[in-house]
Write a structure and sequence with these properties.
Layout lengths: L3 E6 L6 H11 L8 E6 L5 H7 L6 E4 L16 H6 L4 E4 L2 H6 L4 H14 L2 E6 L3 H5 L3 H12 L12 E4 L13 H19 L1 H6 L1 E5 L7 H5 L6 E4 L8 H6 L2
Bound molecules: 1,3-dihydroxyacetonephosphate (13P).
The site of 1,3-dihydroxyacetonephosphate has 14 residues, from strand 8.
C-alpha cells in the first residue's frame, strides 16, 4: 500500500511570521495517519515554520535546491543547508522553474541525485503544456521528462522519490484535469517506471497530481488508482488545505 502524500507548494507567498502563524494553526488539525502532509515553504520561512510545526507530524519541504555542495552560485541553496534546518522534502523541476528560470531536464536529474544523496525526499514535477496536449504528445512528453530526470537513479532509490504530474494548463488556472485525464497521465508514468525498474518498484512509488486541486475536487482525484495524493498550490495557503488532507 502506498501512503498518500499531500504537499502544499506555498510558492512565493507568506513572510516568515505569516507562514509560522498559518502553519501553527493548520498543522495540528491535519490527520497524517492516511496521508503524509507537507508544507513546501519559501527558503526564508523554513526556520519559522519548522518551529511552528515541530510538535506535529507535518513534514517540511523546500521548493528548490542546487545540485552542487557549495561554491560560487549566488542566490542558491544546498541540500545540506536544507537538511540542517529540518527540511525533509524538496520540489524539483516545477514547471515555473523550468519556464522562468530555464531549468532543464538535465538540471532536474542532477538535483534529484543530490536530493537523494542528502536524504531528502524529492518531489519531481513533470507535465505537458496545453499545446502538447492538443498535439497528442502528452504521454511521449511525460515519458521523456521522467526518463531524463531518472537517468542513473538505481531502482532501490526510486520508491524514495515522489513524482508529481502537473499539467501546465491546469496550474493556477482553476482548470483542473478531469479525474480520467489525471489518472491516465499518472498511469503512463507508472508504466514507464515498470519498464525501467520493474513492477515492484513502480508499484511502490508515489505519483501525485497537481493543478487547481481544491477541497471540492481532491477526494475524487486522489481516489484514482494511480494517483497517490496531490501537490497543491493556491489552496495550500488557505484553511481548505485541512479538508484536502483530511478529506478521505
Ligand atoms: P495550483 O494548485 O495553484 O494550480 O498550483 C499547482 C502547483 O503548481 C503546485 O505545485
Amino acid at each position: 500500500m502506498r501512503k498518500k502524500v499531500v504537499a502544499g507548494n506555498w510558492k512565493m507567498n507568506m513572510t516568515p511570521s505569516d507562514g509560522a502563524k498559518f502553519a501553527a494553526e493548520l498543522a495540528p488539525k491535519l490527520n497524517t495517519d492516511n496521508a503524509e502532509a507537507v508544507f513546501c515553504v519559501p527558503y526564508t520561512d523554513i526556520a519559522a515554520v519548522a518551529e511552528a510545526i515541530k510538535e506535529t507530524n507535518v513534514g517540511l519541504g523546500a521548493q528548490n535546491l542546487h545540485y552542487e555542495d557549495k561554491g560560487a552560485f549566488t542566490g542558491e541553496i544546498t541540500a545540506a543547508m536544507l537538511m540542517e534546518l529540518g527540511v525533509r522534502y524538496v520540489i524539483i523541476g516545477h514547471s515555473e522553474r523550468r519556464e522562468y528560470y530555464a531549468e532543464t531536464d538535465e538540471a532536474v536529474n542532477k538535483k534529484l541525485k543530490k536530493a537523494l544523496e542528502a536524504g531528502l525526499t524529492p518531489i519531481v514535477c513533470v507535465g505537458e503544456s496545453l499545446i502538447q496536449r492538443e498535439q497528442n504528445i502528452t504521454a511521449d512528453w511525460l515519458r521523456m521528462q521522467v526518463r531524463i530526470a531518472f537517468l542513473g537513479i538505481p531502482a532501490e532509490a526510486v520508491p524514495k522519490t515522489v513524482i508529481a504530474y502537473e499539467p501546465i494548463w491546469a496550474i493556477g488556472t482553476g482548470k483542473v484535469a478531469t479525474n480520467e485525464q489525471a489518472q491516465e497521465a499518472c498511469a503512463v508514468i507508472r508504466q514507464l517506471l515498470t519498464e525501467l525498474y520493474g513492477k515492484e518498484t513502480a508499484e511502490a512509488t508515489r505519483i501525485l497530481y497537481g493543478g487547481s486541486v481544491n477541497a471540492d475536487n481532491a477526494k475524487a482525484l486522489f481516489a484514482m488508482d494511480d494517483i497517490d495524493g496531490g501537490l497543491v498550490g493556491g489552496a495550500s495557503i488557505k484553511p481548505e488545505f485541512e479538508k484536502i488532507v483530511n478529506g478521505y
